[in-house]
Amino acid sequence: MIGSIVGDIIGSVHEGIGTKSPDFVLFDPFCRFTDDTVMTVAVADKLLNGGNYVDRYHDYFHAYPQAGYGQSFILWAGYRKQEPYGSWGNGSAMRVSPVAYALDSLEEVIAEAGRSAEVTHNHPEGIRGAQATAAAVFLARTGTAKPEIKRQLESMFAYDLSTPLAEIWHEYTFDVSCQGSVPQSIIAFLESSSYEDAIRKAISLGGDADTMACIAGGIAEAFYGGVPPEISQPALALLDPPLLDVVNQFQLRYSKR
What we know:
The chain is an all-alpha fold. The protein has helices spanning about 1-10, 35-50, 55-65, 70-80, 90-95, 100, 105-120, 125-140, 145-155, 165-170, 180-190, 195-205, 210-225, 230-235, 240-255. The protein contains 15 helices and no strands.
């Protein structure tokens, strides 16, 4: 989960500006946590303390109403609506990484990822994006090699993960859909050589930078055995005490899994 949060924070200053190079200052003075972090912590809180996803998402939205949510989510959470709104956006994927640590099997992870998504993102693409991301994190944290992660994700979710990042880079633009950002984020991880490299590659596509770095970062953390302290510590220092408390509790309970 920390890998997702760090990716969000590093990517926050690149969203919407079309960064097309991996060579950037890792921590800009204006880096901040966004809705990606808030909702990731909301999922972690639900897994730690029970309850339901709808209430957790509502409560965290009202605690952090200016974090940068999409308009549909703002209307849904702002009025505390109970019914999903059919989204295929990547919000379902950005928040899902804690699920991959809290469950014991790939099947359970995929099922729980679907539950975390469907209360808002009940479009098939919204659910697929969350499930593919959670599956990637689970496979990575349980020691699966990259070629096998790629094979299983392509088989289970019918994503094309074969196009090289260099080819995607030339034509890729801002895209908030799951189908238009989750596969690319996974490829950024697959082609990476380290946690930091995964973040830089995801951001350098010039798309929805914070969310793509959040997705790629969550997988990379699991695969590379954590986030280097020199990267995680400056990022976590930007969290307020309530968010950091949930992160710490989650790490204590699930970090050894």
